[in-house]
Amino acid sequence: MLCDSCQNNEAEVHLTQIVDNEMTTVHLCPACAAEKGLDSAAGTNLPLTDFLAQMGKAAIAEEEATAAGPCSYCQTTVDDFRRTGRLGCPHCYSIYESQLRAILRRIHGSTYHLGKVYVPPASEEADRTARLAGLRRKLQRAVEAEDFERAAVIRDEIHELEAAIDA
Amino acid sequence: MRKLNLSLMPNFGLSWLEAAGPDSDIVLSTRVRIARNLQGYPFSVRAKPADRAAIFSTVREVLERTSPVAGGIVAEIEDLDSRGRQILLERHLVSRELVGQGRAEAPSSAALVASEQEPVGLMINEEDHLRLQSLTSGFNPRETWQLVDALDEELGSQLPYAFHHEFGHLTSCPTNCGTGLRASVLIHLPGLVLTKEINKVLQGISQVGLTFRGLYGEGSEVIGNLFQVSNQTTLGKSEEDLIDHLQKIIGQVVEYERQARAVLVRDAPNVIEDKVWRAYGLLRHARALDFDEMMNLLSGVRLGLSLKLLSGPSVYVLNRIMIFAQNAHLEETSAGTLSASELDIQRAFYVRSVLAEAGPSAGP
């Protein structure tokens, strides 16, 4: 989504206001948000900081104290992340795990993925056990959802994989 | 896969215009997308041209043997001229990010892939490596999700996705991680706007984890009484729960909209009929139309059709106008670059000729 104000940058600040029963939502990029005085801490015109600042400054200070990085894989720093709101690579999620956990909880109200269980494609011997565990969770979900057709397919996959591991 | 040729496939990606889906007199379309990234590569924001090229060729090779996209259409962004890119944007088939709007050069190794059998496909090297997407007619979250889910199962069994045991699918922006799922509907709510109930409804939906914006993701500007409503969070709920929630809440909104329309017809039948016919008259005869004005008038005609105050044009014709009377589409038809005032004239001409062809909509 583009910034409402400059139409150039990605909007990262989303402000919903209710005045006299009229609701308006504005979507702004960090720069325009700062211009409109929507960055609560002067000089730290950063989207996630803004977001966090509203939710509780103490928690941020705590996170900053334990700040890790930069990411050894892609060199993304905490500052890069704060500035762009984007992580550099999957590895960043491990490097910044504890900070992200706090951020994710505030964005989504949870940190636990409850969606589809991803089973990586079989390739390495070492992956097989992980794949088997994933398939079993997948089977459980399919049964819970009473999707027995899919459950049967997954069960066959499990049998196949178990046979392959035994062999 | 075949390369996209817009002159040979003028209706590429527009099957939803047929208005064949459920409640398509109120909900124009349903869209579902999921974000996926490949293990072993930086996210797009950090990816070098060589990374992007490697991602593209890896994915493309898998797509060649993956139903239903195998043998489908591929549009490499670098191969398209700026009008071609704009046309895909106007059809909601690509994001600004994918086509690099606002940047001097087209992004390398970025592509749109679409199945020819089903309304499903993906963007490659968008903000995330893969954005699987489906766009269908009417109010159809479950089926639309199933199309994307099926493609995801196929691709996920062949490609190593970046996945975290706790956080789920990892995405460049943490607002998308977990399921990576964003489901949205494009919904027409003139009844709630005219009865001034709309703010209550919008407040309500934002309290239950949904968010709204205007048409075409162009900021939050709402034109033509069209709202795009989607889930706000992607982590901590299953895909089915997110989809069911949207289904339930939007189902209620559709119901409120029908009630509001009934109230309008009951309490102010003459006002509504006049509004509808004025909108039709302007569209049918105006000599210059800017896009916003046209969208507002189309809203009136769309309302009139739904209330059976008009017998034509069909919803399909209105949907088609909404797409083909956008700037890049108009320029494509007239094969030249047009100034703002020329565009308004061309738009009015196009709308007049389509409505003339659609036949008289004789009312009582």
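The first strand of chain A starts at residue 13 and ends at 19.
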